[in-house]
Write a structure and sequence with these properties.
The chain has 8 helices and 7 strands, in the order H-H-E-H-E-H-E-E-H-E-H-H-H-E-E.
Length: 241
């Protein structure tokens, strides 16, 4: 996977730059996220929640939790306690405010943390989720290996990530929107000149579909399956320890 950074002309590791980027756009992230996806992302998260709910987990880890949209959705699972981890303090601040407003602070705990060095014991969680986060890992295999380490044997890992449509004409329409319209709106609203240019670049560089399944298999995951959603704009990957 070729390394793509948000601020290509600046110093700093990808991890540092990703944290800086999300800190910069955190105040407008939710608005832009739902606007630019036309709200479709909410349906994708509901699908993730249904998959996780079927395993009846009590302890769920949401990695790259951001502003906690998925963590909040996962709180609908009866008896589940969710821990959300992210490298951006700005995103966690917004997420924490949303959790407090919804009265979910006893069900959801957020903490600053690195996906490639998770601060948890082996076999700690019944299920792990990541929504639009693995694409931002500095070392994809290190992050996936950490997830495998902290999930319990038989536990489910669910990854929601952007992919690329292949069918005509949706592929061509999508790529035009993703490369030209989305970055323009993103720059105007977020005031960050790089964040929404980085998004399509990082999607282009990500090993989606069978390539991602192959990586999961190589690292020791079993029963890895890819489920494309909305004509392949995104894919939900599930795997078991």
């Amino acid at each position: 996977m070729a390394e793509v950074k948000p601020y290509s002309t600046e110093e700093g590791s990808k991890k540092e730059q990703v944290a800086k980027m999300f800190d910069n756009i955190s105040a407008r992230y939710d608005f832009l996220n739902h606007l630019l996806s036309l709200g479709i992302d909410k349906g994708w998260r509901r699908k993730v929640v249904r998959i996780v709910s079927a395993t009846q987990p009590t302890k769920v880890l949401d990695i790259a939790t951001g502003t906690a949209d998925l963590a909040i959705a996962l709180s609908k699972i009866d008896g589940a306690h969710i821990t959300g981890v992210d490298i951006s303090a700005g995103m966690l601040k917004v997420g924490g405010e949303k959790i407090d407003k919804k009265g979910l602070s006893e069900r959801i705990a957020l903490q600053l943390g690195d996906s490639e060095q998770l601060p948890f014991e082996d076999n700690s969680f019944d299920a792990i989720t990541v929504a639009f986060g693995v694409r931002n890992f500095e070392n994809l295999e290190a992050g996936l290996s950490e997830m495998l380490r902290v999930v319990k044997p038989g536990g489910k890992v669910v990854v929601l990530e952007f992919s690329q449509p292949t069918g005509f004409p949706f592929k061509q329409i999508y790529r035009f929107y993703f490369k030209y319209i989305l970055p323009t709106i993103g720059r105007l609203v977020s005031k960050d000149q790089s964040a929404y240019t980085y998004l399509p670049e990082s999607v282009d560089a990500f090993p989606y579909g069978q390539r991602f399944l192959d990586i999961l298999g190589k690292l020791g995951y079993s029963k890895a399956v890819a489920r494309p959603v909305t004509f392949g704009v995104a894919t939900i990957y599930t795997a078991t320890k």
